[in-house]
Amino acid sequence: MFALVRFSITTAPRAGGGLVGLAALSAATSLAVTVLVGQVIGATPAFVAGDPDHSSMPAFALLVAALVLVFTLDGVLTVVLSMLSTRLTYDVDVVIHRAITATMTASARIGHLESPAVEDESRRARGVGNRAIWVGLVALAELVRSRLLAIGSAVVVGALFSWPVALGLLATTWLVEWWSARISGIEQVTWRAGTRTGREADYAYELGMGTAAKELRVFGFAPWLKNRYVRDWRSAMVPLWRVRRAATLRTTAVYAAHLAVLAVAVWLLVRNVNAGLLGLTEVATVLAALLRLAMSANGTAAASMERATSSLRALQRLPKTARAVRAGDTALEGGRPRRDAGETGPADVPFDPPRPRTGPPDVRLEDVWFRYPGSNVDVLRGLTLRLGAGEAIGLVGLNGAGKSTLVHLLAGAYRPTAGRVVVDGVDLADLDDQELAAWQRRLAPVTQEFLRLPLTAKENVTLAEPADAAPDRLVAVAATAAIDSAIADLPRGWDTVLDRSVTDGGELSGGQWQRLALARALYAVDAGAGLLVLDEPAAALDVRSEAELVDRYLRMATGVTSLLISHRFSVVRNADRICVLDKGVIAEQGTHAQLLATGGRYAQMFELQAARYVGGTPNA
Ligand SMILES: Nc1ncnc2c1ncn2[C@@H]1O[C@H](COP(=O)(O)OP(=O)(O)OP(=O)(O)O)[C@@H](O)[C@H]1O
């Protein structure tokens, strides 16, 4: 409870503090209503049978007016409390989202993004329905109100009637509350154990409703995915239902004890009335207070607080878990010291749209070993490769040889397990986050899974670069990437949002998306990026245009260092140097003609591919 109070007061001091303060005030007004109701009822007979000159009128009217006033205030406070809760909801939502996104984007490296531990912790922090913490904060106000009201009502019952009855009922009221919170705690532990299955259910839902909604239906996989979702969701929820079923008997016993004490209290009250020990005012006040006390057990609020506290702890652990996952790389690397102190989070890393124009970089991979976190297979095994400043290097290799992995290492997204990636003499592993982010801004990549953003066509090309400052550049790169006519056909040209679900939105074919991604990389080069990386840039293009497009592309990108990865030899053959990646190392390198003359692996692969074209050698 104290952790939540501290959290609400530090994150939203006005709404959080105001909510708790108002809750206390609301408890006081509710208690005042109870006492005034007793007073009015007690005074009614005397007033009704009153003297003919109505001398008791002003006092009775005053009592009724006070009751109406306090009752109205109580109602107003309830409305204000609900408004403040809504306000707190917004404030806290922002804080939680910021905390989670700050952790996820705290580093320019990406190991933690693939970590199940980090994903589970983030899911726990968000809680069921993503709202555990703020539901708990609203419950905190309710709990403050109900507990103060319970104590106040007990004092009224004790002072006017019986202290043992007051304390007995207070005890069973809190027993009910404690029991609800305890069950919720057990449910939390059970739910935490099932977060992985729950996450799988979430993925299935996201796939079916978003990412792959169209494809799954076109190919008739929707029922399969639905069954899978139901299966995973049930297996995450069944243990929870089991906990609830197992607790049914004890829950019934706790509520029965509470009701029994209330029944005894009412029976004793009736006995006292019969014995003439209590007047009408006392009876009315005590009865109202007894009911208030008995009904103040707020198991729901206590349970929500339990859940919120558990989520809050997960939220506080999250950055540590993410750091530990990233630090796991250090252990893999044999403890080479790293400068993690520079991890400052997105709020502190200023985004600087203009790319630093520092010319084409010289990049060296020196005896690089790499295995993915959690894997026991070395993808790269002592790879050494140099991309000289301004050189165009082609990279070929079989599926799974490690070509895309090499691109991740070049970008510094992962650290090598051993060895170094050195850019202009600086080891990427020694860069702090801001320096690494600056290096990544010097890259213009087209990866296999290129971005398809539901933004305008213009934003898809320019991203953070200011397009309005260079409209000619936009036209030029669109022409080079041969996407200009497709853009002209869109309902609103460059300003068309590339998402069919938007009014006046447009859609591109797979090949047209790829051309748009190429235009984006060219635009970045023009804006100052010095290293162009094309990973299968022509996979979605028809064979006729691919080689011609890539050649045109490289011509326009002169003056940069470029890495061209492709299974299609027609794409890489004009590179200054072609490297063959095999078994984690560069097995061969040279020009297209030199490699063919050597008769090695490259020549074999080339001949195999060429034989599939009519006439033997495409573009040879
Ligand atoms: N995030 C990851 N975690 C664990 N292993 C991975 C991860 N990404 C790739 N791998 C593994 O690393 C190896 C190299 O993959 P990579 O994608 O770099 O190959 P590639 O040469 O680009 O393949 P392709 O030609 O099919 O695109 C593969 O065995 C793959 O299964």
Automatic annotation (TrEMBL):
Main location: membrane
Natural source organism: Actinopolymorpha singaporensis
SUPFAM superfamilies attached to this UniProt entry: ABC transporter transmembrane region, P-loop containing nucleoside triphosphate hydrolases
Keyword annotations of the record: ATP-binding, Membrane, Nucleotide-binding, Transmembrane, Transmembrane helix
Positions of the UniProt region annotated as Disordered: 323-362
GO terms under cellular component: plasma membrane
Positions of transmembrane segments: 20-48, 60-84, 148-176, 252-270, 276-295
Residue ranges annotated for the ABC transporter domain, each copy included: 363-608
Cell compartment(s), UniProt: Cell membrane
InterPro entries from the UniProt entry: AAA+_ATPase (IPR003593), ABC1_TM_sf (IPR036640), ABC_transporter-like_ATP-bd (IPR003439), ABC_transporter-like_CS (IPR017871), P-loop_NTPase (IPR027417), Type_1_exporter (IPR039421)
Protein name from the UniProt record: ATP-binding cassette, subfamily B
Molecular functions per Gene Ontology: ATP binding; ATP hydrolysis activity; ATPase-coupled lipid transmembrane transporter activity
Membrane protein topology class: Multi-pass membrane protein
